[in-house]
Structure formats: structure tokens, C-alpha cells
Write a structure and sequence with these properties.
Blueprint: H1 8-24, H2 30-36, E1 63-64, H3 74-81, E2 86-93, E3 99-105, E4 114-120, E5 125-132, E6 140-141, H4 151-158, E7 163-165, E8 175-177, E9 192-199, E10 215-217, H5 226-229, E11 230-238
Parallel strand pairs: 1-6
Antiparallel strand pairs: 2-3, 3-4, 4-5, 5-11, 7-8, 7-10, 9-11
Amino acid sequence: MNLARPALAAALALVLAACQREATAPAAPAQDAAKAAPAASAPTSQSGNTPEHPALAPVSDYVLPGALAPDLGVEQLRQLFGAGNVAIDEHLPGAEGEQIRGARLFGADPARRARLYFQDSQALRGLSMVVVDDPGSRWRLDNGVAIGLPLADLVRLNGKPLRFYGLDWDYGGIVTDWNGGALAPQDGDPVQRGARLGWADDAPAHAAAPVGDGEFSSDDPRYPKQGALLQVGELSVSFPGEDDL
């Protein structure tokens, strides 16, 4: 297993743990975001002359991580995507049934919807993770992985077989190891990119594909048709932790 890139569910568990510690101690086109709300004016320093945080220009593509970064908060997200497209959500799904306070982008639009988790869930400070899982989503990773991409095409994009958890359980379908392929983590890149497999839209009932909490390979001879039966059903990016807040 590639420990340098933790699975999405494990990362969500870490986000939840960080939130509990705090409690106890292809983006919208520029013209769409501009219609939703003009970019907010940047706050000024005590001298009244120099902005502390320059205003951010609206984003123009649905790519992850794109303009998203760990130092963004809700106000910066509203500058990027438009105030009407960023909503606080008290019940984002977490690991193993937990619910976490966070934010949603484009909550009413499945083609652009995304879930955002933070290191500090109360202050919504320190963007930690972005998750996209709607069928037909326009979001994609900057390495070319997109929702609906068949497993066979994912393997070709990677250039090597990959490993993943079997389907139909809490962590089912999470890619665990790119085996040093083109989609494997790059040295020095702090952003973690994740993908999760699910059944293809046209997969027949009772199709033979890996199921259960074991780890499987995309070239497993027991499942010769899994390349067409499985597809990418979820994308995620995770950012560095508390040291970077």
C-alpha cells in the first residue's frame, strides 16, 4: 500500500480528529462567479494603506486542486466561486458515519458540487480536503482523472496496474497504490490526489468484480472484465495539515 497517499476515508478520519481537538481546546467560470457576487474588498492593515489579503480573482475551470489551497477560508472561497455558491454545511459526511461541519460549493448543481473540509471545523479555517462524487461531475484532477473514467482507462493513464479495496463496504473502491505509475505521488508535492472506484453505470447485476475489505489489483486474472465494470466514482484532494495553517 502507498502510505505516502492515505486513502480518502482514512484522511477523513484525520480531519474529524482535528476538528474534535479544536472543539475541545473543471470551478465556476469567471463570469458566473461574478454574477453570483462581486469579489469582496480585501481587508486593510491598521495603517489603512496596504491590504492584508489581496482579493482573489474568480476561477475559470473545474480542476482540482486548481486555485484551492490550505490557507483558504470561507471568505476567500466566496471570492473564487461567488458568495451564492459557497454554503456552510453542518452535516458533511465523515468516516464511518460521522458528520463534520464544513462547506459546499454549488450545492444545488450536481455537475459542479463539491464538499470542503477544514482543519478547524468551527472557524472553517485551514482547508484540509475537497471531495467530489456526483455522477457526471465536471470537476477533474489536474492529472487527468475524472468522474466516470473506466478502470481500464485509469490503468492506461497510470501506465501500470494499480491496487484498490474491493467494493461494497465503507472504504470500498479506494485506490491504495499506483505502483509507481504516472499517477503516483510526485516527490515534493504536498497535495494528495485520490480516486475511488465504483460500479460502472451499465454494469450488469451480479457482475464479477472485487468485493469486500481485501485489496485487489487491476490486473487480477480472476476478474478479466473489471476494467469495463468499474469506473471512477469519487475524486479528492488533501492538503497539508496544521503546521501549514
